[in-house]
Amino acid sequence: MTEEAALKPIYRGKTEVLPVPFFDPATFTEIAVKRNSTIYSACADHLAYKPPLAHQTDELPIGTQRRFLEAARVAARLNHPLDTLLTLRWQSLFCAEDVNPLRCQHIPQRISYLMELLRKWMTRRDLPPFYIWVRESAGPAGEHWHLALHASEKYQRELAAYIAKITYESEADHVRAADKVTEGEFACGEIGSWHLARDTRKARQGYFLAAYLGKGEPSQRFFRGKLINNREKPVRGRSFGGSQVDGRYDAAQGAISGTAGRNARFAIARLLQVESQKAEKSQGLSRLRSGSFTMSKSHLASQAEV
Fold first, then answer.
1. Three-state DSSP class for 282?
2. Which domain of life is it from (predicted)?
3. Cβ distance 146 to 85 under 8 Å?
């Protein structure tokens, strides 16, 4: 393009509107062009999509421990009590620099992945997938995961070997120190990231194991501006109106981050939930047939209005 042609109105108008620089063929140097368009006045947002915030919880919801205990009762009634406890510490598991596929997953994804493997492991051995798990964060050890499940004594060694396989931490050939060992412990990881313990008292039928997993529910709650004992929590310390020693079932379990859709702090096996609902319905029908069924005041009022 010659200098004379560039001075014509048609070209002069385009150079003012088009936001594209052009080169002078005589000198091969870039000529600055005025950019009057409004699209250049605002900075581009490199993160146009902002994912929703994850759920944050500081404690278990009121009534969670009671749900855990009911699930333990149902499992014991079906002759498959929750008698085995798995504890897994994430910070210790990833302290080494070795390759671990669980490292690149978020904690809810890790738990879902491990639970899928464990459910298949139990199904292949004709064990019902009865379990309760809960996430806790307390102390310098960071967040850890408790899983209560049913596993027969003859499968203890197989379960320990399988946990070592899916966590990529081999089983230790020695027991942990006396101040760290858990009652009924029969296996642990090489660096102590996980350990397995069995309920030594069969008469308890997993009741106190479920209560221990529900200790994250507060033992006190606010009611009409006053702090009162949480009567919805059956197992709690004596200082909070319970019958147990203070501390074991009352300690706060820290803040937990879930997903955008759910808090992912605890879970009860779906099969146990279904069986619990069946038990509640059968108990309600038995009370109704015996004449001891009592209706709520709201239900009586609605019936009276009809």
1. helix
2. Bacteria
3. yes
Distance from C-alpha of 250 to C-alpha of 237, rounded to nearest angstrom = 6
Dist. CA 201–CA 25, nearest whole Å: 93
Are 206 and 199 in contact, with CB atoms under 8 Å apart?
Answer: yes
Quote the CA–CA distance of 132 and 71 in Å, as a whole number: 8
* 207: amino acid identity, one letter: Y
φ, ψ for residue 142, nearest 5 deg: 80, -160
Read off the pLDDT band of 34 (50, 70, 90). very low
3-state secondary structure (DSSP) of residue 223: strand
Angle between helices 156-167 and 107-124 (to 10 degrees): 150
3-class DSSP state for residue 151?
A: coil
Q: In this structure, are residues 54 and 162 in contact, taking their beta carbons and an 8 Å threshold?
A: no
Domain ranges of the chain: 3-40, 56-216+251-273
Instruction: Express each pLDDT in 173-218 by its tens digit.
Output: 887 887 788 888 999 999 989 999 998 888 889 999 999 999 999 9
Sign of the CA dihedral with 215 first, then 132, 61, and 232 last: negative
The first and second tokens of residue 301, run together, are: 């009022």
Q: Produce one character per residue of 87-117: b if its CB has 16 or more CB atoms within 10 Å, e if not.
A: bbbbebbeeeeeeeebeeeebbebbeebbee
